[in-house]
Amino acid sequence: MRRDSEQPKPQLFLQETPARPAEDICLETRHLSLDYQARVGKENQTRRALEDVSLQIARKRVTAFIGPSGCGKSSLLRTFNRMTDLDEQSRLSGKVLLEGEDIHARGVDVPMLRRRIGMVFQTPNPFPMSVYENVAFGLRLVGENDKRHLDDKVESCLRSAALWEEVKDRLHDSALGLSGGQQQRLVIARTLAVEPEVLLLDEPASALDPISTLKIEELIRSLRSRLTLIIVTHNMQQAARVSDDTAFLHEGRLVEFAPTDQLFTNPRRRQTEDYITGRFG
Amino acid sequence: MDITSDSHGKHISEQFNHELDALKTHLLAMGGLVEKQLQDAVTALLEGDSETATRVRDNDKAVNDMQLKIDDECTRVLARRQPAASDLRLVLAVIRATSDLERIGDESSKIARNAISLVENGQSPRGMVEVRHLSQHVRSMVRDSLTAFARFDTDLALKVLREDASVDLEYQSAMRSLMTFMMEDARQITPVLNVMWILRALERIGDHADNLAEYVIFLVKGVDVRHTDTHDLKPQDLDKK
């Protein structure tokens, strides 16, 4: 991935971000723009996924990104643990700061970064091994082999992910035998095992039935006492239910970022209003 | 963000547009009925027409039925649509407004009952001038608050809020003079008390119109001005909140 350091453009959209003292900010973007190459016919064209996004995400709160398909919400999430690196053609400008440090700077230890910022995807992706080994996987990777310590850690992570009671008698069965909702909670438990500071969730419940969805949402609420969560969702009611702050993105720009209560009762922008009330924009 | 009276159209769901439109239309129809009840009650009182007064008393059930019907529609919209932002504020404002309109209906029927009693037991020698004056005042407040609702007009709503203070003053001064009169002539206590109940009902109607105006501000601006000093609110204060 190439980086360039062009001058940030002036902000076109006035943002009413919740004012926060600097010590409460966990993750921050400054004038973040992202371009990628799209194949159109036989030619490559540069498309802009994010345009000058500046926002501050508070520690130990749930922040939701909402917006129509293609608005850049998933792209924005992916810049937070350098998933955008995987696309060699993409070009990023501006900064993403984790606890004040630029995570896209040269010399950043990316695997370490991804330990600090965990991610969960739309489709549950447990490893094809036992429930126990799924959770222990990350710990073994960092050199933890003490059986008793692993047992304790697996249990506490499964409890944190509200899955322990359902799987305690089948810890050594294959994780692929679990239901979709259980698999997703297992994936969250696996992520929690390496004690991330931030958990990114990209449509974590959109492949699940309503009851499993509620369990995931309940889990998200319970986890906010220990880490910062950022969730991308198409489901506005879900954003309204689980998040403390909500950012609305449209065509790669941050249109409005406000406490969820305010955004869903009295948004400041026409575009936000139209989107959350289901009108033609 | 401010909204206008046509803001509730344009949903991707045409059916949702219809449902919200129906809420507004039904609320304004209820408002029209309540306004008519108030007008008839006051006319019956001033003209000593017990037939009209009886009709007002009996019509109160129609007002109550409308409240039930509109509240039921609101419940359905909340359950089925999970409205947000200005749609949510519309539903909340309509629920609140039906309750105040129903109370205006109750007060009108109280006025009608007192009018009947005055026809049967003899008119009060005092207080009718005050009743006429106060009733004109609160009727215009009710009318303006409903117009403000129909047009999403916060300036008109603010005008209603400002008027409530002068209604309160008129009411207090009328009560004082009637009390003095009762002390001077104890034989007139019964009819004068009827007039005092009527003045009290009119004053309460002014308060309900005041509430309606507050809901218009909530609906349009998203600002809740209940339980604040609203008598000297300026348009620019609403944007600052």
Automatic annotation (TrEMBL), chain A:
GO biological process: phosphate ion transmembrane transport
SMART domains assigned to the protein according to its UniProt record, in alphabetical order: AAA (SM00382)
SUPFAM superfamilies per the UniProt record, alphabetical: P-loop containing nucleoside triphosphate hydrolases
Molecular-function GO term, any one: phosphate transmembrane transporter activity
InterPro entries for this protein: AAA+_ATPase, ABC_transporter-like_ATP-bd, ABC_transporter-like_CS, P-loop_NTPase, PstB-like
Keyword entries, A-Z: ATP-binding, Cell inner membrane, Cell membrane, Membrane, Nucleotide-binding, Phosphate transport, Translocase, Transport
Residues of the ABC transporter domain: 27-276
CDD domains, alphabetized: ABC_PstB_phosphate_transporter
PANTHER family: ABC TRANSPORTER I FAMILY MEMBER 17, IRON EXPORT ATP-BINDING PROTEIN FETA-RELATED
Entry protein name: Phosphate ABC transporter ATP-binding protein PstB
Provenance organism: Cobetia amphilecti
From TrEMBL, chain B:
Subcellular location: Cytoplasm
GO cellular component: cytoplasm
Membrane-spanning intervals of the chain: none
SUPFAM superfamilies in the cross-refs: PhoU-like
Domain PhoU: 28-114, 131-216
Main location per the UniProt record: cytoplasm
GO biological process, one term: phosphate ion transport
Keywords: Cytoplasm, Phosphate transport, Transport
Pfam name, any one: PhoU
NCBIfam families in the cross-refs: phoU_full (TIGR02135)
Protein purpose: Plays a role in the regulation of phosphate uptake.
Subunit and partners: Homodimer.
Family: Belongs to the PhoU family.
Name of the protein in its database record: Phosphate-specific transport system accessory protein PhoU
Protein source organism: Cobetia amphilecti
Gene: phoU
